[in-house]
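> forwarded from #structure-qc
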């Protein structure tokens, strides 16, 4: 049996779409809001968490660079005073 790549992607797409639709409908029904409002809330939260994570990683990376720069300046200033 040979699987066509396009058919595999299509099956994955429909599985994800069906699961997402079911979850959105269940959440909307339980919260008494529309499916669209739930979807927007999920997208908002995803973007918010993604931005937070990216900023956190950037700042951690920047802190490492700043510490390296400080060490460089400390050693170079000691050498200049000799």
């Amino acid at each position: 049996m040979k699987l066509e790549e396009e058919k595999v992607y299509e099956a994955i797409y429909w599985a994800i779409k069906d699961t997402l639709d079911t979850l959105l409908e269940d959440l909307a029904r339980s919260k008494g809001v529309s499916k669209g409002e739930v979807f927007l809330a999920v997208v908002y939260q995803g973007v918010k968490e993604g931005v937070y994570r990216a900023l956190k990683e950037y700042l951690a990376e920047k802190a490492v660079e700043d510490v390296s720069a400080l060490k460089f300046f400390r050693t170079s200033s000691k050498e200049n005073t000799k």
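QC bot note: The first helix runs from residue 5 to 31. DSSP finds two helices and no strands in the chain.
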